[in-house]
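Notebook entry, structure prediction.
Reason for the run: the old model in the group folder had no record of what sequence produced it. Starting over properly, with the input documented here first.
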Amino acid sequence: VLSKWDDAQAAKCDGDLLALRVYTSRLIGSDQDLVLHGGGNTSVKAPFRDIFGNDIPALYVKGSGWDLASIEKEGFAPVRMDTMLQVPKLPSLTDTELVMVQKQACLSPSAPAPSIESMLHAMIPYTFVDHSHSDSVCLLTNTPEAKQFIAEVYGPKALVVDYCIPGFVLAKTVAGMVAGADWSQIEVIILLNHGIFTWGNDAKTSYETMITMVNKAEDFMKKKQAYFETLENGSAERPKLDTKGLAELRREVSKAAGVPMVMKSNNSYEAEMYSNLPDLEKVSQVGTLTPDHIIQTKRTPAIVNDIAPGCGAISKDVGKFVTEYTGYFDRNKKPEHKMLDPAPRWILLPGKGWATAGIGVKQTIINDDIARHTARAIQWAGKLSCYCCLGEKDLFDVEYWELEQAKLRKGGARKEFDGKIVCVSGAASGIGKACAKAFLDAGACVLGLDINPDVATTFKSPAFMGIPTDLCDTEAMTRALEQCVHCYGGIDVLVLNAGIVPKSALIEDLDPAVWDRSMNINLSASQRLMTAAIPYLKLGVDPCMIIVGTKNAPAPGKSMAAYSCAKAALTQLGRIAALELAPHGVRVNTVHPDAVFDTGIWTQEVLETRSKAYGLTVDEYKRRNLLKAEITSHDVAGGGKNMAG
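New structure, fully documented this time:
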């Protein structure tokens, strides 16, 4: 691990202790070898000035829900030092009481909830305190020889603390260990199966002590020939996983969860090598690298031995995980516990790699990062000794700990399409773009297809994948669908929207090339996409297809034969699709917009030509409906989204 300290950047803080705290916290948070997605915490001791101008000794500690990588000053909660130092002296304290006393000690009503490790930060008598879940340190403590290895690495100046649940119990334990201690003789605190604390009276010392202590652990493993940064084979090309099998796997995981889930596949060389370990079924089932990972990935991954679609192994192996998770819950539960959903969040695919599941794409990325670091650490352990971690009961207590579950609830209520995956054609503009936005806003992951290269940057969200695609190119379209399944897990909703409005012409004047182009783009391209997507829809969660037709299908206008006939045929194709797909639980509906003019296909020339054909002005033509209102792409998108709900 390299120090990222930059004197010039630090100088911009102008000696402001909280600004320096933000700076080094971000340095720690930006290094995934130190913390992952919300893990770790930091603090600084500085006076809090009240409204009367009085300086109150305070601890500014990372607030719950903030990520060190992006934390701001507002992410630190100022709490009274005297209260934090007094609390560990109490004989006992419930979680509810701990939350209450920390709220009472907070000096700002707008501050986030202080970290449950605030008391431990307070008792370390240095200005800056850093706490990380370093992979290398956690790995050393997750071996049978943990205390021996820690002694070899850090010597007698390391305070080694046996695992206990964070918060009051941990603070009280450490308080007892350091009572009357000479802190100059303590260089580092190592929490077994948990992480590491370092400190200093200035930001640089505290941060660089963390780097030094972590590197000592890495150097120890290097000497034992147990350390590697990553596994790579030098090739960017990897064989793709069976996308139909992945879609079936994601469906089974969603069934187990009781809600739609997104699923990210990882077929990297690194993932493949881990999934090929000869003792995979043993080492992968031991437990998490650090306890707080359990609220993301559960205690162990599922192992699905074959993802060939329809082979039976997928439902069998996911079902096995559900049964084992239920047994784990029953063995450890208390009367007040209610079982969380039993679906796996990390799924190992022996010989192929793995997949990670979550309510949304962000969760799948977090779980994949945790999986990568855990897989690497387990392989380090295999070279150093063997991997072990907290026992089942201790991990259960963390998973079902009210204070940990509160972190997950901060995400807010589910949205209507959370976990759903939608494919929209013609997504770069007009109705297609509006549909993509409507589904994104409702929580879905969206694959946007369009011949316009701007589709790649239409929405800046990890939940949107815009792929420039000529829908008349079957191979390109198939690759796009496969990429979507690799990244999101499947397809639940197909919105067939892409199309053109050819120049008006009477039938006797119709150019055959115009007719053929309209049929190719408005009909054949949608048929090809429908054909390619149907196998995924059959494996989707509450799947459906929405066809964007036109009023011209049931009620055509003159001079629009090329457009109206193509759309009428598409409407008929939708009716046939409804008949064929109903036995598979796939709904098919068509929305017929009329007079939607905020789209690229309605140029001023087309508007003038069509309004003239009806003997109307352009404005009258735009409002030729019973309400005399102009209909927008947003209105049509809302209707399509409601059909999919």
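Summary: DSSP finds 24 helices and 17 strands in the chain.
The old model has been moved to the deprecated folder.
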